[in-house]
Design goal:
This protein has 161 residues and is of the alpha+beta class. The protein has one helix at 3-38; strands at residues 46-54, 60-69, 76-85, 88-98, 100-101, 107-114, 121-128, 132-139, 144-150.
Length: 161
């Protein structure tokens, strides 16, 4: 492929992904505003912001997540992720998991999620509390690393546009 065709394909991919990006921004901003109005978080639901880092190749980037109860499935939660790498943002992955509370009050976050073919299936193992969300991830493609998320502040909460 020529460099010109590669640039055109990249531009087309960015344009096609823009609506989902803006939709996630709007959802995240709404979740942050709701959380700010409610004050100090007392449960695990709501917005989270942090980073992911690959221990396999050193890549890293920003990570956003919105945790909501799964409708009609008590004890199950939807984790809506958006990730970044350099200037790129990608994702809008939904990971639905049943959660178990441990004796120390944290929820154990364990499960698998199939991502687009290039990224494979990721397994997640972590702990989630009202103010911290720390997990390790592992891909069947070889990648493995950590995710560290905290409650976003009122400034710069949403992914940069």
């Amino acid at each position: 492929m020529t460099p010109r065709i590669c640039r055109l394909l990249l531009l087309l991919g960015c344009l096609l992904g823009l609506p989902s990006c803006l939709s996630y921004h709007a959802r995240f901003d709404k979740a942050v505003a709701k959380a700010a109005a409610e004050g100090n978080p007392t449960d695990i639901t709501g917005p989270w912001k942090g980073t992911w880092r690959s221990n396999w190749n050193g890549h890293e980037g920003p990570l956003w997540c919105i945790v909501t109860p799964t409708p009609e499935k008590p004890g199950t939660y939807d984790f809506r992720y958006r990730a970044g790498w350099g200037a790129l943002q990608f994702g809008n992955y939904v990971h639905t998991l049943p959660l178990q509370k441990s004796p120390d009050g944290f929820y154990l976050v364990r499960g698998e999620m199939a991502l687009p073919k290039l990224f494979g299936t990721h397994s997640l193992d972590g702990r989630l509390g009202a103010k911290s969300f720390d997990a390790s991830y592992k891909s069947d493609k070889g990648d493995h690393g950590i995710m560290t998320l905290r409650r976003p502040g009122r400034n710069k909460a949403a992914p940069e546009e």
